[in-house]
Amino acid sequence: MLRVAKNGAKQWVQRITIRGKRCEIGLGSPPAVSLAAARKQALENRGKAMLGGDPLADKRKAREGMTFSDAVDKCLSAKLSEFRNEKHRKQWRSTLDTYAAPVLGQKLVSEIMVQDVLRVLDPIWMEKTETASRLRGRIESVLSWATVAGHRSGDNPARWKGNLSEILPKPAKVAKGNNQPALALADVSRWWVDLGQRDGMAARALEFLALTAARSGEVRGMTWDEIDTGTSATPATSATRAVWTISASRMKNGRPHRVPLTPEAVALLASLPRLNGSPNVFFAPRGGVLSDMSISAVMRRMQAAQEKQGNEGYLDPASKRPAVPHGLRSSFRQWAAERGYPRDMAEIALAHFIGSEVERAYQRSDMLDRRRDMMTAWASFLRGEAARPDNVVKVAAF
């Protein structure tokens, strides 16, 4: 059941008979503990009781000695299946080890209060806002797990809404320079020529990333069976209708995504060697998936070469920091806006959610054909070619 106190505090409660005695066991508080999580714990408790165990005594015993570091280990092992790749696993653990463990590590989870969480977040909230915001969410997840597992009770001290939001400034209001450095549009064609002169699988992956405005992980994890190089079924046109389909499990938003492949992208793929026994399009020198650092290293080397020649290189117009691979998506988005392409179409190309859940329910089209024309124009822009409007009519001179 859900018990609501006079002050509005809520708690999931299970009534259960343990060794002939009727008892109540707290299962945590919403929204930190969902109904599904509470039901799962209640089912486990019932099973223990049916086998002669005492889930209430187990809960009390467990609550006595679980430290935050122990909770991190157990929570992470339970959440491993949620992470899409090893990089996310390492990031999740690294932030907790670096910032939370020194303050909370040896503290019992049952004793952690809001003030303790603030001791972790305060030193980095203004200077490393994005990192601090993610860290807060991870601490909340660990403490939520500890609550459901019976190691603590009460509200989650790391909860944002109605809790830390009343003490800390909103991340969006204080974040400074967190955007990935983008390539200036004026430098795009020069950068593209420079990239084309570089050899190696990582350089080709970066080219493909630029042509498709995709994320690094999506490109690096690309397999040959995701590509449909079929041509148009309409005899009247010989235009390539190639499509790259990325499964939901590989997408950041958890939804499948189709990417129209321009002739340049298809030609690039056709030029790539294939590794026997490997499904990967862009493979590492020793096989396997190309690393994220290898693509970033290409841009760093390009920047270093420019600076060695006494040039400014490829800097973000706003932050003046060297552009990075992920910043190419921002460059594409700026180009699309300046060329007057519909906002929704550009956002779909970047695999971003558009509108509310209701709007997305009715917006079933991914505008694939229209996006193909847009990406073709983007490829022309990368090459430094001016767009040629379709509605220009030649008028004879008087």
UniProtKB/TrEMBL annotation:
Source species, domain of life: Bacteria
Protein name: Integrase
Keywords: DNA integration, DNA recombination, DNA-binding
All residue ranges annotated as the Tyr recombinase domain in the record: 178-375
GO molecular function: DNA binding
Similarity annotation: Belongs to the 'phage' integrase family.
GO-annotated biological processes: DNA integration; DNA recombination
Biological classification of the source: Bacteria, Pseudomonadati, Pseudomonadota, Alphaproteobacteria, Rhodobacterales
Alphabetized CDD domains for the sequence: INT_P4_C
Chain segments carrying region Disordered: 307-326
InterPro entries per record: CB, DNA_brk_join_enz, Integrase-like_cat_sf, Integrase_catalytic, Integrase_DNA-bd_sf, Integrase_DNA_bind_dom, Integrase_recombinase_N, Phage_int_M
Domain Core-binding (CB): 66-147
Protein source organism: Cribrihabitans marinus
